[in-house]
UniProtKB/TrEMBL annotation:
Organism: Chryseobacterium koreense CCUG 49689
Name the UniProt record assigns to this protein: Phosphate transport regulator
Top-level lineage group: Bacteria
Family statement: Belongs to the UPF0111 family.
Gene3D superfamilies referenced in this protein's UniProt entry, alphabetically: Phosphate transport system protein phou homolog 2, domain 2 (1.20.58.220)
C-alpha cells in the first residue's frame, strides 16, 4: 500500500457516522409520526400499526448494528468512540420502548386511555428535535441550534412527567384493578420513551460541549 493510500485509510470517516445517525433519526421521526397517527384512529382489531412498529424497530436495529460495525472498522472517528456508542444505543432505546408501548397496547386489549395520544405527540415532537439536533451536529458548525433542540426535548420530557401523574390519578379513580395495572404499565412505557429521548439529548449536548 502506497503512502497516499495509508493516509487515506486513516482519515476520519465523518460522513459514514453522520449519514448513519441521520438515517436513524429520520426513521425515528417516521416511526413516531405513524405511531401517533395510528393512535388517533386506533382499532384494536387492526394490528397494522403493531406490524409497522415492529418493522421500524427491526430497521433501526440494523442501522444501529451498522454503526457498531463502522465503529469497529474505523480507527479515527468524528468524535469519541464511547460517545458514538452511547448515542447509537440511546437512539435504539427510543425505538425499542416505542415498539414495546405499541405491543402492550394490543396485548392488554384495554380501552384506549386519552393520555396515550398526548404521549405519542410528545414522542413525535422529541424525535423531530433529535433529527434537527443530529443534522446540526455535522461539522459542529451549529452548536446553538443543537442546544435549542436539546432544551425542547428536555421540556417535552417534563411535560410527559405531568401527563403521567395526571393520567395515573384519573386511572385510580376508576377503581378497576385489572385495567389499572394494564394501563399504568402502558403509561410507564410511553413515559420511558420520553426519558430515553432526554437521555439522547443529554448525550448530544455533552458531545457539543466537548467539540463545538
Amino acid at each position: 500500500m502506497g503512502i497516499g493510500n495509508i493516509f487515506k485509510a486513516f482519515q476520519p470517516k465523518d460522513k459514514v457516522f453522520f449519514v448513519l445517525f441521520e438515517k436513524v433519526a429520520e426513521t425515528l421521526v417516521s416511526m413516531s409520526k405513524e405511531f401517533h397517527e395510528s393512535l388517533l384512529e386506533f382499532d384494536i382489531n387492526d394490528d397494522t400499526m403493531l406490524k409497522d412498529m415492529s418493522d421500524y424497530e427491526h430497521k433501526l436495529d440494523d442501522l444501529t448494528h451498522e454503526i457498531f460495525v463502522q465503529l469497529g472498522e474505523n480507527f479515527i472517528t468524528p468524535f469519541d468512540r464511547e460517545d458514538i456508542s452511547t448515542l447509537a444505543s440511546g437512539l435504539d432505546d427510543i425505538a425499542d420502548f416505542m415498539y414495546a408501548s405499541a405491543k402492550y397496547i394490543y396485548l392488554y386489549k384495554t380501552p384506549l386511555d386519552p393520555s396515550y395520544t398526548e404521549f405519542s405527540l410528545l414522542i413525535y415532537k422529541s424525535c423531530v428535535e433529535i433529527e434537527n439536533a443530529i443534522k446540526n451536529m455535522k461539522d459542529f458548525k451549529n452548536p446553538r441550534e443543537v442546544k435549542e433542540s436539546c432544551i425542547k426535548i428536555n421540556s417535552f420530557e417534563n411535560i410527559a412527567d405531568d401527563v403521567l401523574s395526571q393520567a395515573t390519578v384519573k386511572l385510580f379513580e376508576t377503581q378497576d384493578a385489572i385495567n389499572i395495572i394494564k394501563i399504568k404499565s402502558v403509561l410507564e412505557y410511553l413515559e420511558t420513551v420520553t426519558d430515553k429521548a432526554e437521555d439522547v439529548a443529554n448525550t448530544i449536548e455533552n458531545i457539543i460541549i466537548k467539540y463545538a
